[in-house]
Amino acid sequence: xxxxxxxxxxxxxxxxxxxxxxxxxxxxxxxxxxxxxxxxxxxxxxxxxxxxxxxxxxxxxxxxxxxxxxxxxxxxxxxxxxxxxxxxxxxxxxxxxxxxxxxxxxxxxxxxxxxxxxxxxxxxxxxxxxxxxxxxxxxxxxxxxxxxxxxxxxxxxxxxxxxxxxxxxxxxxxxxxxxxxxxxxxxxxxxxxxxxxxxxxxxxxxxxxxxxxxxxxxxxxxxxxxxxxxxxxxxxxxxxxxxxxxxxxxxxxxxxxxxxxxxxxxxxxxxxxxxxxxxxxxxxxxxxxxxxxxxxxxxxxxxxxxxxxxxxx
Length: 313
Hints:
The protein has 12 helices and 14 strands. By secondary structure, the chain is an alpha/beta fold. It has a single domain, classed as 3-Layer(aba) Sandwich (Rossmann fold). The relative contact order is 0.15.
């Protein structure tokens, strides 16, 4: 059993790679829900949808998010009626949000809905939200505190980030699937996907007891760096690191995760860091995932690396 923590495009890519080489009973993918929000009366779960669409082979590869072959009649009609259009919802994508919203309002849990949507999309591996409770990422910036999607989409991450808060995390409970995978003696490794450490992974780690449970596990915890050659592969991770006074490098990623990590996978572009490296064990390989083969290759190398590690005392 492998437990993967994921969010965003990079997380979805490695999750897809893991799903290619592991059977459904060998993998649990836990996904960030701090990005979730209500928009136009609909419950939107961007990271869950990105992971689902990627695993189902339905994602827009060029764009990184959304569905391939999407059309935009709904947004055009919304604009014509004077509605909010800063967050694009494709015509096919709307169906996902309508069905999720309907079922949430009928009293179903996000876990149950996600599991059923995955089955209907032909996904056999277990995909679970980090929590069924409401957790919302709030971004403190030089222009005030913003809900995550306002910062990320409406303002295109332009404000200077000062601090993150995860409203509701203190009282939120990890989902049963998350706890089961975390506690199971069959779980041989925890893989932190190359997601944004601050926006996608930290919300998961902020749930009560998660950091302690990871630290106490006998199975190693391995992360794949989302920073390659001084830049983020995708998204604002590098910008955020600079604004927080951090070096934009895999070393800073390792320092951010701290004692939770037993190993870090870095790209060949950063192999010079190996000399004089202080931190968790490192594995150097090609980490850019351009196609399905790249995803599976990186997933396999990450798991081999994890299998060779011993949990740090």
